[in-house]
Write a structure and sequence with these properties.
By secondary structure, this protein is mainly α. It contains 22 helices and 5 strands. Strands 2-3-1-4-5 form a 5-stranded parallel β-sheet, sandwiched between helices. The protein is globular and about 70 Å long.
Amino acid sequence: MVEIENPHALVGEAARLTAEGRLLEAVSLYQRVLTRWPEQPDCWYNLGLLQRRLRQYDAALEAYARALRHGVSRPEEVHLNRAVIYADCLRRDEAAERELRAALAIQPDYLPALHNLANLHEDLGRRAEALAVYERILELDAHAFEALARYALLKGAADQALTARLRAALAHPAARAAAQASVGFALARRLEAAGEYAEAFAAAAAANQASRASAAPGARYDRAAHEHFIDAVIAAFPRVRRLAPTAAGERPAAAAVYPGPIFICGMFRSGSTLTERLLAGGAGVANAGELDLLAYLVHGTLAPFPAAMTSVSDGVLVQLAQHYLAGIAARFPGAARVTDKWAENFVYVGLIRTLLPQARIVHTTRDPLDTCLSIFFLHLDQRMPWALDLLDIGHYYRQYRRLMSHWQSLYGADILEFDYDALVRDPRPAAQRLFEFCGLKWSEASLDFAQLGGSVKTASAWQVREGLYQRSSGRARHYAHELTELRAYLTAN
């Protein structure tokens, strides 16, 4: 007797596999269902979700398109999901905007699409358009605290009524800790711009406390654990490692696709976005921004990192290099060079030099106090709990410097130290040195990077569109009293 398959049972099994984290098996099961019963919009939607998690972006877009064609409920949500893939994963901003507008054509007051559209306008440097969308959100939802915070960051500090509105939002009973963090950081920035430094610092401290309160239980920075991690990374790369060819004769040559990617590493707020925008003036250079491709490969094949480095074979590492190069080639077809400024690149310098020996590594630096203070004023993800306390930031900074000293001892001239403060004081010689190191032809037009198009998806999106300025250098002088303990900690032996 031939067993008749039950689609409901198969879908239930796919849901169970998903809950257990067995995503590839779940995808296979959904595909099996849809091969036989293709008019299942929810199955297409669930398949798209899984393929997005597996970074199968083109397949996910197609699955979502099938869900739309088969009449999925809440089609505006599907358009939103497609927009996120286009904007965040494929860097195709025009396509992302089309999807967001399609969602809003279905439901004009769909707040998630409005938020994403406002963010996209910000990424693309469209201040007036972003402000208009935030105003629309605030008309629809008086308690849209995140929109209020973003709106306030775009408006001039002279608007005292807006500053008062932020203070009122902080005291509103509907403002939970996450909202208080967003509003508080915006208030701190406005107070600083108005020259009210003591109040600005107090507002930033309160915002960090609110951010910590909104984090998941147990999300605390463990200084000892982080020191052990840095120790382990240093131990995993005691010397320069050069990969041997595999049995098939494959070599990890970065030039297989590009002359070599350009990795930008350093602390947050050390000038990495500015450096990347400078390099975008080079012919054929594409900015990948905070590309997490290397981290994704590390947390998969090389988990747990760095312990896995003691046993991983050269052949596996060659394959990782090829996967990385194929990944950036797929996202940036036709680019001669690609810049990668993922925040954790400084952790992976040894791995980068092993996998991609022809890659260029640019280490951005800045005055330590200015760097730590800038992080303290920035609303970072709570998954980086070290950023929520001034002395924790100082501790993380010291461990970062310890690791970078190790990389310098191994690779020396293969890492360019690129000083933000030196750049803004005297741009041309610093920029020329950067281009020479990266093997790019120098052009005076590169200094006009503020006029470049394209999106910037970091906290520095607006600053880099102003061009080069010196007002951020020496920022810490306004907070001499508040930074006394941090200054002593950073300079202690």
